[in-house]
Amino acid sequence: xxxxxxxxxxxxxxxxxxxxxxxxxxxxxxxxxxxxxxxxxxxxxxxxxxxxxxxxxxxxxxxxxxxxxxxxxxxxxxxxxxxxxxxxxxxxxxxxxxxxxxxxxxxxxxxxxxxxxxxxxxxxxxxxxxxxxxxxxxxxxxxxxxxxxxxxxxxxxxxxxxxxxxxxxxxxxxxxxxxxxxxxxxxxxxxxxxxxxxxxxxxxxxxxxxxxxxxxxxxxxxxxxxxxxxxxxxxxxxxxxxxxxxxxxxxxxxxxxxxxxxxxxxxxxxxxxxxxxxxxxxxxxxxxxxxxxxxxxxxxxxxxxxxxxxxxxxxxxxxxxxxxxxxxxxxxxxxxxxxxxxxxxxxxxxxxxxxxxxxxxxxxxxxxxxxxxxxxxxxxxxxxxxxxxxxxxxxxxxxxxxxxxxxxxxxxxxxxxxxxxxxxxxxxxxxxxxxxxxxxxxxxxxxxxxxxxxxxxxxxxxxxxxxxxxxxxxxxxxxxxxxxxxxxxxxxxxxxxxxxxxxxxxxxxxxxxxxxxxxxxxxxxxxxx
Length: 529
What we know:
The chain is α+β, with helices and mostly antiparallel strands.
């Protein structure tokens, strides 16, 4: 899921993303109940910094060819930032506006993941604790069940992940003698602050799953699937169903059934801080149902609702409701509870695969707040959990040490959904170069990048070219912004690093993507001989 505000994905791209997501989830499931293992992907060869020497001139034929690509009349009103460097010699092969700040869209995830890998380490896992606030007597917990989260984004319905985890939790509670919980199921999300949304996110993005808010307690990536089906005849109201249950969303269904020969046109709207999700438009009679993945308003309540339902379904009687701790005037303290269950997520090396391959925004925003946990929450005026501001400060400190100047980046969120994010192509190349030359960072980071023509957001791009199976790069996509930054190997076997950013264009996005791909293919074909 790239940061975007564009149209629906094509069917081939959906298939590619679904296949990649399934593979990543399968990998995650294997890691859920085991000690974190080394990343299963082979570490690419190291490209140590070359000795200092005068930089050779840029190859004129390569420069001319890239200039010709960018000189197309379709790009007259747009703005390009491009930098290509050799990882072998450090010389610059091509540069255009390399030191200009540009909107990166999901290329901001390169910044977030690199800083998180450095600060947290690839073995970092998220811990979820279930505490009992009361004594266990005669098969009953005489008090509340307190669920304390630290931000785990991986507890999803897909591939039965959450079902298996909930099975494990229920069995653990039963083994401790808990068959009844006389109190409530309370979600403690105070590891993070309550600023769920990114700075500068557009209000009309908020109904969609790619703009899901962040919490220290998260379930199903804080998203639900809405299915809209036509009525029996034109003019009838359409039906709207939402799964899984417990979202807390109240749906206002204003969708009508249209004539059989009309196109479907369905729009969703949800205002910030509101649980009311409005659907308008029409769906033709006899048409197949239309699905839309939407964000929930309160991720914490969604998570504890799911847990309560799961425990009840597994034979544990719960007398009280599921509650967000922020809704209580006198909440229980963590220190007063007894740990009943402890669960750890897959390691960061596995989570990074979903973050980068399918460009999952929630994972990036979660990581940025997690950096704030480690950095501290000095920005708070009152007691609070880790903030995005603290995470940004942590990332900035890390990248400055790598040679990225403060003026080369303005980071407002972790995913790039904000239009207040800016970074230079040189800043991204500097980060990618440092990662490639750091043995502890390189393997899992480069393994997480989409591969041209093979998987993730590049599954259907550069197929049948010298870049297929060669280029590894992070895409970025939102209205009037496209980006691609990563690595490719030349025809001579020379490792190259590149960043290509396009801003302020009115040209169709696929034209921008084709030009970007043409540059990467040219790099894959490049030879110094």
